[in-house]
Automatic annotation (TrEMBL):
This is LITAF domain-containing protein. Keywords: Membrane, Transmembrane, Transmembrane helix. The chain crosses the membrane at residues 106-125. It comes from Bacteroides faecium. It comes from the Bacteria.
Length: 127
């Protein structure tokens, strides 16, 4: 019969969010590297696309973090680390909300004044 500690040691955790929902993939041929190599060195440079093609890349299905196998955590995140992750999510949500907000009243006033000044300058230069 396994204890909770034994099953916990067998798991790997995302270093960013602490999730155990991870997937492993091998990197394939890199077209960008191949094109750069071909431009720099000619046809032989196409082989540069194979550089790093066998590397394993771990992707977290929860937060999308991509890392190498050695960067994974073998123990769950501490409460302090979890708090940092949730703070980061909160800050990103606030930034997104600010970007989506319509222009403030002060911004509208400044814009109207600028347009009026531009029109007045245009009218004054036409006379």
């Amino acid at each position: 019969m396994e204890t909770n500690m034994e099953t916990q040691e067998d798991k790997l955790y995302c270093p960013v969010c602490g999730s155990t929902q991870l997937t492993a993939n091998k990197k394939g041929f890199g077209a960008g590297k191949a094109v750069a190599g071909a431009v720099l060195t000619g046809g032989v440079g196409l082989l540069a696309g194979f550089i790093g093609s066998g590397d394993v890349k771990i992707t977290c299905l929860n937060c999308g973090c991509q890392c190498k196998p050695g960067q994974l955590k073998t123990s769950p995140l501490s409460e302090y680390e979890k708090q940092g992750y949730y703070n980061m999510l909160r800050i990103k949500a606030e930034e997104k909300k600010k970007a989506e907000e319509p222009m403030s009243t002060g911004g509208c006033i400044v814009l109207v004044i600028c347009v009026l000044v531009w029109i007045l300058i245009g009218v004054a230069t036409c006379k």
